[in-house]
Amino acid sequence: MSVLLETSAGDITIDLFVKDAPMCCENFLELCKIKYYNYAPVYNVQQNFSFQTGDPIGPESKDSDGGSSVWGSPDGATKRASRPEKMAFEPEFTKKRKHADRGTVSMATTVSKVNPDKRLAGSQFIITLGDNIEQLDGKAAIFGEVVEGFDALEKINSAFVDQSGRPLQDIRVLHTVVLDDPYEDPPGLTQPPTSPLPSAEQRATVRIAHDEVLEEQNDAEQMEKLRREREARAQALTLELIGDLPFADVTPPEQVLFVCKLNPVTRDEDLELIFSRFGKVLSCEVIRDKKTGDSLQYAFIEFGSKEDCERAYFKMQGVLIDDHRIHVDFSQSVSRLSKEWRSSTNSKTARSRGGFGGIDSLEKRKQYRGEGDRDRSGRYDYVFDKKERRREGGDRGDDRARSQERRRGPSRSRSPPRRERKERERHAYDGKGERYRERHRSRDRGSREREYRSRR
């Protein structure tokens, strides 16, 4: 006995275990026959575990009654039961059937309010998305298995869901087709001639329609903005790794203004006097060249409060100072903050002052290794100081020489060390060789002279 579920994720074919769970199979087949599951949402998706459906309206709706069994005589169009006392039934639990394979289909059950030892089922059913789901054994009544449509199960398994497990884009049971039905219809059951349209209650539960096409953002300006944000994020992470930033998400101070297009003759005192009318100025610095001392025509002004900084920003934009119309913006620089963090971190007393690197206003948000992950007193195997390594090697060599000398005992020879003896022998050999070559040269000259006289 088989049933075909046409869902928005794909078709799913289910074979029923009629001999093991006759009541569960009859309930499921008759509900599919009257189109009770049409437009029912898929909810409670747990990746690699299971998903649940069968409530025709959805458990999040206030109009939902949780679903009714076929013996409650529900209407396929309105989804309302005419016999509320028969909405639930007691399903069959078989010990030989386990949730061992992916695609196992079982009725969702709840504990009876009258008898805690009994579990009752209605219309909701569960399909497993993984193997060996032992947690459902004894709690969900198995009545079938998926034989076709595992690609649809994979789409449901990989769907984006919210905190309650409901997919962000609706996944619905669109149609149900009974391929083989061995049961007789219960009295009062009417089968609709055609598939009913979704009810108003069902349409009210739509979040993102299953047939709605989600177009990607193709705006060139938006894509360029996204690219710049990703590039800035990557650069910030690089600066964090090399130690130029305390953390990648560091934000610039909110009470610092950036002023540019200044006249080269504008001094710090003049700029501070002009901007001090908006509030207390903590610092005003015109940035200059380190070698020449010439103004680079921009400055940073730090106010005592954020409100004073905002007031100066709105009032000083485009103002004429020393025949130059300046440009004012909020500072995006964190160089001063990074310099303060580095100097405090490198100081010996930074640890005792609290905060991150000794700065109370700066907190450490990210850390690639925990405080206790590594013993800082130890050394890495591949990073060492050459001088210290050489000294350690020398120490080990001296220890080895002393130990060998102790084993040999005191030396009785007064001869010079081996290296000095070799050096003397080499010099002596060089001297003998030079005398030998000089003697042969003189001998050759004498023989050549005698030969010359004899020829004459």
TrEMBL record:
What does this protein's UniProt record list under function? Answer: PPIases accelerate the folding of proteins. It catalyzes the cis-trans isomerization of proline imidic peptide bonds in oligopeptides.
Q: Give the enzyme's EC designation.
A: 5.2.1.8
Q: Where in this protein does the record put region Disordered?
A: 54-84, 341-456
Its cellular-component GO annotations read: nucleus
Which residues lie in Basic and acidic residues bias regions?
A: 361-408, 417-437, 444-456
- UniProt catalytic activity: [protein]-peptidylproline (omega=180) = [protein]-peptidylproline (omega=0)
Domain RRM stretches:
255-333
Q: Which GO terms describe its molecular function?
A: peptidyl-prolyl cis-trans isomerase activity; RNA binding
> What InterPro entries does the record tag this protein with?
CRIP, Cyclophilin-like_dom_sf, Cyclophilin-type_PPIase_dom, Cyclophilin_PPIL4, Nucleotide-bd_a/b_plait_sf, RBD_domain_sf, RRM_dom
Write out the coiled-coil annotation as residue ranges.
213-240
Official protein name in the record: Peptidyl-prolyl cis-trans isomerase
The record's subcellular locations are:
Nucleus
> Which protein family is it in?
Belongs to the cyclophilin-type PPIase family. PPIL4 subfamily.
Keywords, in A-Z order: Coiled coil, Isomerase, Nucleus, RNA-binding, Rotamase
SMART domains xrefs: RRM
Q: Where is the PPIase cyclophilin-type domain?
A: 6-178
Q: Which domain of life is it from?
A: Eukaryota
